[in-house]
């Protein structure tokens, strides 16, 4: 074998229902005999074998690449008519299945891509079925394209079909799948859905401040708090992606990000970041003079954090400082005055997020060491990072208890703390130094649940104690 070894990317397994051939055990035995370290599955129109393929590959010591040779409708997947693009005498060179489908081969490059392949395949069966072909279309492929790489496929692909028909302009269009619009690409760039981590704690601080102020919910101020939080976080994420784009390009896990692939230009990313910053500052100005005066201070750690991994082994500490701003700012937005209770909650949030970022950084240890990115896992190893995260989350729990005592919280808030403590125990049970297979579940699902659960319990507690809607 040559170095690096050859990798088959287009293989039909026994699960390729219309033309399956390769039995999994025999296929992986052959990989080991030939020294092939990676191999892909690309079954026709389905992912039924993905689970078996993945686990059989792991048992064999081969790295699995999960893909699909998809059936793609020549127009909309909902159009149940067969479509042909050529002239009658070109029938043999026209759309496969007498006008039923073209082919496109796609592979998942990460967990997000795998989930998107599952979505595409499921939707193809639910909405795109024609005779015996579960068909996707360009709309769904564009919608669920994150984490997926694609090729033009076999001779039945759209590009090859257009070329055979002599339709060269159409072939060129087929080679350039439409990219998502700038707004959609920017929202994906900043991962807007991850606002769930910090936003609930800003709400907890804001609502607690309202309770201490006059026991009334001030909806306009709460809306401005939301605008501030989303605006500042959007600015921070965009700047992070811009500054880290060269590092992202060298890391296989992040090489699909929009600034690396070209789905979003640096100029447009800067435009979005600056718009978000203006929105944040404008909302802060509408709240009160103290919020506007302190707003630039909140921006500083957001800009420093991306550079932190270049000069310190503890960039998570900078991230924690940045995240601590949320609850502190939420309290200031309501009262216009400083509160040490808000500082306690802010510290809890900062230590919590710094802790789970220690876990998240464990998946990039080898790459970070190779390209010179600094972090606790890269410097001290995965076990040290996991133990550091456990210490952080123990401290977080203690700070939450301190906050509950300082604000005279009631039974529902204490119930929320019990739920949070249980979630921390679960998180550290499923993520261990020798097993990071469920890291993404711990990072996204568990930590998202923690924020929402504590917010719901805190809100119920305040309402029971007399907060008026």
CATH architecture of the largest domain: Orthogonal Bundle
Low-confidence stretches: none
CATH superfamily of the largest domain: UbiA prenyltransferase
Q: What is Rg? A: 26 Å
Shape: elongated
Total DSSP E strands = 5
Mean pLDDT: 90
Q: How would a textbook summarize the main sheet?
A: 5 strands, mixed
Amount of helix: 55-70%
CATH top-level class of the largest domain: Mainly Alpha
Keywords:
TIM Barrel; five-stranded mixed β-sheet; single chain; alpha/beta; 469 residues; 2 domains
Q: How would you describe this structure to a colleague?
A:
Helix 15 (315-335) packs antiparallel against helix 16 (340-361) and helix 20 packs antiparallel against helix 21. With 469 residues, the chain is of the alpha/beta class. It folds into 2 domains: 24-177, TIM Barrel (Alpha-Beta Barrel), CATH 3.20.20; 183-464, UbiA prenyltransferase (Tetracycline Repressor, domain 2, Orthogonal Bundle). Strands 1, 2, 3, 4 and 5 form a 5-stranded mixed beta sheet that branches. The chain is built from 21 helices and 5 strands.
